[in-house]
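A quick aside before the break. I want you to see a complete sequence-to-structure record at least once, exactly as it would be stored in a machine-readable document. Don't worry about memorizing anything.
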Amino acid sequence: MVDKHELTRGVDDLSVGDSAVAAFVVEEELQQRPTKQYIHRYRNSAAAQGVYDDLIHVVGVAPSTWTYHSTVADESAFACYDYEGREPYPICEWAARYEEYVVTVTTWLVPDHMSLQSLEKVIQAVDSQMAQQLGKP
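That is the input. The structure line, written in tokens, reads:
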């Protein structure tokens, strides 16, 4: 079973032959604050559903100002948390299943680099790209 405290700890368990990752890192106060997007494609929607149900455990709570809801994804979850209670910035995680795809985005909210509004734009772009990939309106 994947450690339910952090989605990214179990992300390698999601890996399949058809996967991709995109990342960028903010250097802040001698710390690296990565943002990562993983895309995993499974053999069919049922396989992706099983992985999503068994391995996706987004923990924390969605900030009260978060209003975005994907109309493209079959299901999605979003939450933020204070990493081990000792970091100055929260980590936010978003996961979604689009038919046979499972997509995750994990990021630190760092002032002047990534805000909730910026993250919403990133997730909207993911939704748009997935809709185009799947031929959805």
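Two observations worth writing down. The longest helix spans residues 116-134. The longest strand covers residues 18-28. We'll return to this after the break.
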